[in-house]
Design goal:
The complex is a heterodimer. Chain A is mainly beta. Helix content of chain A is about 0%, strand content about 45%. Chain A has a five-stranded mixed β-barrel with strand order 1-2-3-5-4. Chain B has a single domain (about 1-100), classed as EutN/Ccml (OB fold (Dihydrolipoamide Acetyltransferase, E2P), Beta Barrel), CATH 2.40.50.220. Chain B is built from one helix and eight strands, in the order βββββαβββ. In chain B, strands 1-3-4-6-5 form a five-stranded mixed barrel. Classes of the chains: A mainly beta, B mainly beta. β5 of chain A pairs antiparallel with β2 of chain B, so a sheet runs across the interface.
């Protein structure tokens, strides 16, 4: 899994029908200090994350699993909203 | 598997149900001179690793699903070991007890 921040959303009407009903969010990766890096990418939302929220995602084949019963063509899925990232030392 | 260092603890209450009960740690993969190499990875912690510890992580979804006893879980990285020492060409380059590393 990896950390990200929601920076926007993407709407497609013509798409693979397995993606119907799945919200697609625009995300940028963040590092442990909350600094965004890399180019924005599209991730399927399985948790109801809002714009600007810090989230964590899973990539690759596992990104299709949060959507029960159907396995949409997704290689990035938002699977959790983060409350805090802290160093314990 | 990869060698990494635990850098942050991540707390999340609103998350996919498979993560209930697991603590999640952010780790930084390391090269063998103990410098950061590659981007940080968020892992579920299966061994009780602590802050700044050198650990071994597995980044393969199906393997992590097996460890969690699940079939289709959106988890693809886990801490599977805490490193005691690392030897290269008969020379110990890391020893947890004396922690002469990075």
């Amino acid at each position: 899994m990896y950390l990200g921040r929601i920076v926007g959303k993407v709407v497609c009407s013509a798409k693979d029908e397995l993606l119907n009903g799945i919200k697609m969010l625009l995300v940028r990766k963040i590092d442990g200090n909350g600094v965004m890096y890399g180019k924005p990418f599209v991730a399927c939302d399985s948790i109801g994350a809002g714009n600007g929220e810090t989230v964590f995602l899973c990539g690759g084949g596992e990104a299709a699993f949060p959507f029960i019963k159907k396995r949409p063509p997704s290689d990035a899925a938002v699977i959790g909203i983060i409350d805090s990232i802290r160093s314990e030392s | 598997m990869e060698i990494a260092k635990v850098v942050k603890k991540v707390v999340s209450t609103v998350k996919n149900h498979v993560f209930e009960g697991y603590s999640m740690l952010l780790v930084q993969p390391l090269s063998m001179d103990f410098k950061a190499c590659g981007s940080e990875v968020l892992c579920i912690d299966l061994v009780g690793a602590g802050q700044d510890e050198i650990v071994m992580i597995m980044k393969e979804g199906s393997g992590v699903n097996d460890l969690m006893g699940l079939k289709e879980a959106p988890s693809d990285a886990a801490i599977v070991g805490i490193v005691d020492h690392i030897v290269i060409n008969d020379k110990k380059i890391f020893d947890k007890s004396s922690s002469e590393k990075a």
